[in-house]
Design brief:
By secondary structure, this protein is mostly beta strands. It has one domain. The protein contains 1 helix and 4 strands, in the order ββαββ. The protein has a 4-stranded antiparallel beta sheet, with helices on one face. The longest helix has 11 residues. The termini are far apart. The C terminus is likely disordered.
Length: about 100
């Protein structure tokens, strides 16, 4: 899908949040994966925390935890890594199985 940026009026929103409920995935080169929920933080704080915990060769992905209009929990990928999120190919499932 090609990106199609468009100019908008920044005043078109009625609310905003500065803290999020996030899911952080850290996966090392052996495909060992750790997954954490972090509530009430900014994306920057969560990414900084993940980088401090991860090895230099680890993949990091961060998703917003979201409940849709039918009450089903899901994820909205904010920081992608194709090894973890699978989001780059349009798939909604992780690309590599969880470590044991």
């Amino acid at each position: 899908m090609a990106m199609a940026p468009r100019e908008v009026d920044e005043r078109d929103t009625r609310w905003e949040r500065s803290t999020l409920d996030l899911r952080v995935f850290i996966q090392d080169s052996r495909a060992w994966r750790e997954v954490f929920d972090i509530d009430g933080v900014s994306l920057g704080e969560a990414h900084e925390w993940a980088q401090s915990r991860a090895d230099t060769d680890s993949a990091i992905a961060i998703a917003l935890r979201f409940v849709d209009e039918r009450g089903r929990p899901g994820l909205i990928w904010l920081v992608e890594d194709p090894l973890i999120s699978g989001a780059s190919n349009g798939d909604s499932s992780p690309a590599i199985a969880f470590g044991a």
